[in-house]
Amino acid sequence: MTGWRIFVHSVRMVVDNLGTALRLSLVLYLVQVAAQVQAYMGPVDPAQLPDDMGPGLTQLVLTLLAAVASLWIAVGWHRFVLTGEPPAGLLPRWHGSAILSYLWRSIKIGLLIVLALMVAGLVVTLVALALGPQVAAVFGFGLVGLGSFLFFRMGLVLPAAALGLPLSVREAWRATKRDDGAVITLAFLVIGGSLLIELPAMIDGGSATTVSLIYGVVVNWFATMIGISILTSLYGHFIEGRPID
């Protein structure tokens, strides 16, 4: 199955290039982790901050830095895999226009997915009223799969943005239509992977411990890199015609 092969290929992409992946993403990922560590350590004491730096502003700054770091990692990894561009020391090379284009296309895709899920969510609500919450829970689980499916169908525009190339959502949708079964498989794999990631927290009752924090940081890094790699593999396969080993 193509979807499974794309998933395995994406995992191998990270594992086989682990050193480069760490060099390219580790410093920026630690910026993203800062917000998690702050939440774990407890709320910031306003008395310890400068007069013009309240807890809300601190969180806003961390959130903005995390967003920039996330975009920077994604663009850097796409470019490394698709063009062989190495990181510049401990950071990916900075491509400001590509990062801005990546942000804009991400917002566009996000709005389209939210709109689709709102319509689907209305159907789930009607089902819940008619058949009960148990049946609706099954449909709710399907919303996660629908969101993943739509993201992978349209998300090919993101690696294109990282390369500075034009690609519309319609063109991405048309390209993946040739094998939408692969995208469906990937959507189910993402759901399964998400459940596995959250399983320890569910078993532990979601308690915030140092071990759970470290576990989340490590696992989420792999999930982030594999997720970016899946988009890269989809782009390489459906747009550039690269074979999937």
From TrEMBL:
Coiled-coil intervals? none
TM spans, by residue?
21-41, 53-75, 109-131, 137-169, 181-201, 213-235
Keyword list, A-Z: Membrane, Transmembrane, Transmembrane helix
The name of this protein is: Membrane domain of glycerophosphoryl diester phosphodiesterase
**The UniProt record lists the keyword 4Fe-4S:** no
Query: Where does this protein come from, organism-wise?
Result: Salipiger marinus
Q: Does the keyword Calcium apply?
A: no
**Organism domain of life:** Bacteria
